[in-house]
From TrEMBL:
CDD domains: 4HBT. GO terms for molecular function: fatty acyl-CoA hydrolase activity. It comes from Cryobacterium shii. InterPro entries: 4-hydroxybenzoyl-CoA_TE, HotDog_dom_sf. This is Acyl-CoA thioesterase. It holds the Pfam family 4HBT_2.
Length: 140
């Protein structure tokens, strides 16, 4: 799979566990940072953030240990599905650089749900949100 949304992220010393590789929980921090950059990097980010979105579920398969290093890793995100009130991001954590997608450390998905904060329940995606997602989606 090709990831048009790629974010090079630095590891922190604190990310390492007793086995001298990046702790499994820290992979979720990397995914969170990549999502934030995806939503905030464009001039029209308010279209996706105006109504409120929350993480409904996350799934991550750990494919190989990621030793601590000073070189960044790349998080690739793609919008894989758009529903009535939710969308799914496919995610990968892999090496940075040319041809690096071959060395994948973790792969998974995140389901994001449009959320009405006052009613405290899911809501339908607004037309501007759906349009924003479709412009960045491989399924559009």
């Amino acid at each position: 799979m090709t990831y048009e949304n790629r974010f090079d992220l630095s590891l922190r010393w604190a990310d390492m566990d007793v086995y001298r590789h990046v702790n499994n929980v820290e992979f979720f921090r990397l995914l969170e940072e990549a999502r934030a950059r995806l939503f905030l990097r464009s001039d029209d980010a308010s279209e996706i953030l105006a109504g409120g979105i929350v993480v409904a579920s996350q799934r991550l398969d750990y494919l190989r240990p990621l030793p601590y290093r000073t070189d960044p890793v790349t998080v690739g995100l793609t919008i894989a599905a758009i529903g009535r009130s939710s969308f799914t991001l496919d995610c990968r954590v892999f090496d940075s650089g040319e041809g690096a997608e071959d060395r994948v450390y973790a792969a998974g998905s995140v389901v994001m749900v449009a959320f009405d904060e006052q009613a405290e329940r899911p809501r339908a995606l607004q037309p501007t949100e759906r349009s924003w997602l479709e412009r960045r989606s491989q399924t559009a």
